[in-house]
Each structure stands twice: as C-alpha cells, then as structure tokens.
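Figure 2 data, in text form.
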Amino acid sequence: MKEKLAITLTLKVGGTEHTIPGGNVRGFSLRMEAWGVSGSVEFVMQDDSSWGGKYTDDLLADFVKADLGEVSLSIKPGHLETDTEADDAEIKTSGLVLEKSVREETTQRVMDEPAVLFRHYRVTFVDPAQALWRQHFPCALYTETTFKDVIEAHKGDKISLTYDWDVITTTVSQIFFHLDPAARSSFYDLVIWYVRHRNGVFTYDHAEGTYSIKGAKDTSGEASELLLDDLSSMTSFFPEVPRYKPRVLNSYTESTATQLVDNTNAATGMYRDTLLRTPIAQDVDDRVTLETARPLLPKREVELSFRRFPTVAVSPGSLLDISTTGGHSSNLIAATESFRVVFLSLEARASGAGPEPTYGDTAASFSVDCTARLEEKSEPRVRLPSIVDPRFPGHLEGKIVSAVGADTDITYDFATDDDTSIDQYTVKIPLFESKEISAPYEPESGAGNLYLPLYKNQRVLVALDFSKATVIRMIDWRSEARVAKDGQGQHLFLGKTSTNNTSVLHDYQDEKPVLRVLRTNDKDTVLLRLEEGKMTLKVEETGG
C-alpha cells in the first residue's frame, strides 16, 4: 500500500535528545510482540553549512559516542478516509539502540555549485529488557526473599516493571541461579523461564515503555471496530493441538505416585511426564495443580493483511471487534468475542528517489506492508519469546552449620521443618555473604548402616537448583583423621574434639598390619592394639 505517514522520531544519544523530522525518515521495520519489540529506522540529515547552506547536522557528534542510546517512534496516518481520528490509529513504541551506522554521500544539485552532504543514518533497537538483560549473566544466591525483589535488584535504571501476581511476591527460602555466558542463558531467559514455568504473563506496554508481570492476561478495555475496508485479506489459523496427557511422577520410594492430568484431545498412549523426587506430598499436589492449569486446547487465531494503514489501534494488547458492524460478511467464521492483537509487523520504505522533497517536513509518503496476528480475547495461552532455559544445578562450596556444643566442638546438627517434618542440614555459603541454606539430612557417604552425619564446619559441595539444594559430597578430611602415606593407613576418627574422641587406625608397620583403637577423654585413655603375635590393652591417665 501507498500511505502518507506522520512520523515522530526521537533519538537520545550522547546524553542529548535529538528530534528527527518525519520527512527525513527513509524507512523503518517493526516487529511488535506482546512481550517486546525489535526494529530499525533509517533517516537522513543534510549538512551543507560549510558551503554556505542553511542545514547543519547536529546529530553526528553525539551519534558516534558509545553512550546507551534510546529510540522513541510514533507513526500516524497522514490522512484518513473515515471519521476515525489519527491519534486513535497511532502506533507507538520505544527501545534501546543496539547497532548504529552512518553512510555519507554528496549530491551535486547544480553544475558548478557546491555539493550537498547527506548522511544516511540507521539504528536497530529492541525493548530495554532484551537489550540489557540479554547481556546480563549473573550468579547469585538469595534467601528469604521474593523473586520480585530479585528482579528489582537486577533490572537496572532503564527498565520499569509492575507486578500483579501472588507467586512472584511470595517469600521463598532460596533463589539461586548461575547464568554462564557459555550456556547462552541470560537474566532475560531466567525471567521468562520463571514466568512460563509458573503460568504467568509477561507483557510490554509499547506506548509507555513499561513491563508488567501478572498472573493472568488483562481483559479490560473496549474493543475497536475493525473496518472491512482496512483489510486486503483475513486468514484463520488453528494451532497444533497437544495430543499428550500430562503426568506427574514421584519416585520417592516410601510413597511413589503417578498422577494423570486429563486431556480430552490426547492420542492413546501419548504422555508428557514431569519427574519429581520428594517426600512431601504437597509438592506433588502443587505440581499437579500447576500442570492442570496449563491450557491444552489453543483457540483460533486470525492473521490480518492491511490494504491501507489501520484506522484503529492495532498495537499488541489492543482489542478489535470483527463483525458485520464493520462491514464484514455474516458468512465469515463466527466470532463470538473480541480479538486481542498479539503481533504487528510494519515495514515501510519512503517513496521517491531522494530525500529532498520532504526534508524537514513532519510527514512523507511510504510504501507500506502491514500485517497483524490476533487471538481470541478469552485465550488463556500465554505467548512468550523463545529462550534458552537456565541450567541447573550449579555447584558451590559450603560449610555445615551446627549449633550443638561449643564453637570449637566437632558436632552435627539438623533442623526439622515445622510444616513437612523433614530433617535438614543447614549449610553456610561463604561466597555469598555466608548465607545459610537448607539441604536434606541424608547419608552422603558410606552404607546406610553407617551413621556418620556431616559435622560442624565440614567443607561440602552443594548442588543448587533454583529453589532447593542437596549436599552431594564432602571436599576434605577432618584434620585429625589424616595419616602419613608411608604406613598406608586407614583411619576412623570419631568425637567432638582432639581431646575427647575415639580413634580407630589400621596401618602397616614393617609391612605387617596393625590395628589400634584409642579412646581419649582429656587425660584418661584406653588403648587396644593388635599386631603380629601381640595384643595390648592399656588403660591409663596421662600426665600433664
């Protein structure tokens, strides 16, 4: 289509805001989604002041600076053939600059006259979260906080969010993530993963440049009447229907469980399994509830191709009514409710061979391609960007915490959760301000009939998922337990301190095995020694 468009373009670079006249714009490309935007815009600036002309390019000096750039773009139809106001049809979005380029060329208007210098500028941009969070790869551990607080701590000063979701504002005992650039999963991926995994909604307000994270889609607002004359074609799409039944499996041996979530459209024998290992029955119930809440039957979608610039708002989130009131045939596939715009593509290239005719004006003529994708207003399915899921677990060193005995005593301890009655270690993580996390009180070494709990200040390796942790192994030996390698000994050292313990040592002396059991309680000692042809039992009180 050919359209005259009134464009307002603002570019903030080098700390200075520059307003570019709409007539200087030579083209733009926008992909506007419910969750963000990506786009580019091209424009020209004339600079002939050095040859006595009236134009000066004040943008260049700031454009080449490395400062974070911002783009704001507003597009309105230059004229309408309807009663609709141009402001009602405005498409507006904003973002942060990713890449910039400038091409310089001279034009000879009149023979023997000074040449005119034009600079052709181009910027690509995306919404702030994509621009910044996709470069953010932190490793962090939080305790007794909400994920909302975590996002606020990492969002930066260019991103504004609102929250309306009890899941994200609920305090949890642990939040951990390690976003390795080599794995290509960034903080942006983490936030989207969190929202998707818990059935939340993440949206971008293109006009305001702000985000919201909610528990359900916004259904407020009145639908605008979409006119038949706006369209060149309308196509209905019926997305792929899931043919599986979700199942939740718990491998906890004392209470295994397999719970099925119904899907009336499932094919026989097709399943999508979620595997848990938890002694807490409520964890299983919660996961079944979550999987049951996921929509399994997608509703119809409609794709619109426009023959003229839309006369009503079609930015993502806008509601449209497609009915006979707008001139549509009653024989169309029935629409029992309004539609929500979820995607808008807008491509435009300025008409004419050069920028001179519209230079400095507020509008210019363009060749435009415009398509939109709609969903039914009641569609519960959430649309989110493709991401790289964060990897878990991450591994941190920690030290076992025990409140039993004096600080110097080598003791063990555990806490019993009031809600679940599950016993847990407390582990201190020195890297993160010695924050304390919980891990299952389970045997980590040896056989089940060998009761050797992890002791105070023992160094351990902890595997951390997003919201839970597990001790997977010990890292070093107790200092009193190590023996010299010459005797090839094995040593079991039990007890609270170096003066209150029992030691069982087997080693070799003169290539012959020797077994020694030594009980020590301050000055009182009991020794049992078994060696070649000799057994010694000695009870004594040492001096000192």
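Caption note: The chain has a mean pLDDT of 93.
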